[in-house]
Structure formats: structure tokens, C-alpha cells
Amino acid sequence: MKKESPLSLKLLLDEDSQAKRLIELLRNAGHDIITVSEAGLERKPDSFVLDYARQERRVLLTRNCDDFHTLHQNNNDHYGILAVYQYAVPSQNMSYDTILKCITNLEAAELSLINQFIALNSWNY
After folding, report:
1. What is the pLDDT of residues 46-96, one digit of tens each?
2. pLDDT value for 125
3. How confident is the model at residue 7, as a pLDDT?
4. Integer Cα distance of 27 and 21 in angstroms
5. Is 94:121 a contact under the CB 8 Å cutoff?
6. Where are the beta strands (DSSP E) in 1-125?
7. 123: DSSP letter
8. pLDDT band at 31 (very low <50, low <70, confident <90, very high)
9. CA dihedral 106, 110, 111, 117 (to 10 degrees)
10. What global pTM score does this model have?
11. Buried b (16+ CB within 10 A) or exposed e, 52-83
């Protein structure tokens, strides 16, 4: 039985964020997940990916922070971008469990994600 999240999100997982374990964790937490692969958007420009997220009213989860931050600055009309920053030292990068924890923390804050670019790393507490 799935554990329901009180504020489950509709998420689009970018190509760099569609690991099976992460998908499983997010779905088991009650989130509505679709991946770029499932949407037929592999190898499409980031602008297409964000447009799809916008059309489907989904929050985008990505590790491609710089490119999507630029797109956000050019047009912040979207349902939210959750950016997972990567560090030069792999041990400092967030695990899949930590990504789920950060999303849970963000949900608990009841912050609107619409039109927001959020560094998910800062929600790790």
C-alpha cells in the first residue's frame, strides 16, 4: 500500500533524475511521477521539457540547474522547478532518500511552487 503524502506533487523527472530507485521512492510517497522518457522527450531541448511540464501542470525535478535556471529567468511562467545541485565531491551530493526528504520538507512548509526555481539542496535539514 502506498503511503500518501498530504500534498503529493505532480512531478516531471528530467533525464538526469529518472533513476528507478528515485522514481520508486517518490511514487511510494504518493507523488504523481512521469519521466522524460515516459513522455517521449528524451534528447529534446530543455525548453521543450519545460514546456511539457507547463502544459501538464507538473513541477520539474532536475539536476540540470544552470540551464533550467536560465530558462526560468527568461520565462518564469511554470509550475515550479526543483533543482538538485551536484558538487565536485560526490560524497556531498544528495542521495535519493535525501531528495525525497527535501521534497517532504518543502511540502511541509506549504510554499507555493508556481513560478519558483527552488534549490532543493537548501531543504535538507
Report:
1. 999 999 999 999 999 999 999 999 999 999 999 999 999 988 777 778 999
2. 87
3. 62
4. 10
5. yes
6. 10-13, 32-35, 59-62, 81-83, 117-119
7. G
8. very high
9. 30
10. 0.90
11. bbeeeebbbbbbbbeebeebbeeeeebbbbbb
Helices (H) and strands (E) in the chain, counts: 4, 5
Comparing C-alpha atoms, which of 100, 78, 98, 92 is closest to residue 33?
Answer: 100
What is the rounded distance in angstroms from the CA atom of residue 7 to the CA atom of residue 98? 18
The predicted structure's pLDDT at residue 3: 40
Q: In what order do the strands lie in the sheet with 117-119?
A: 32-35, 10-13, 59-62, 81-83, 117-119
Could you tell me the three cell numbers for 61?
Answer: 525535478
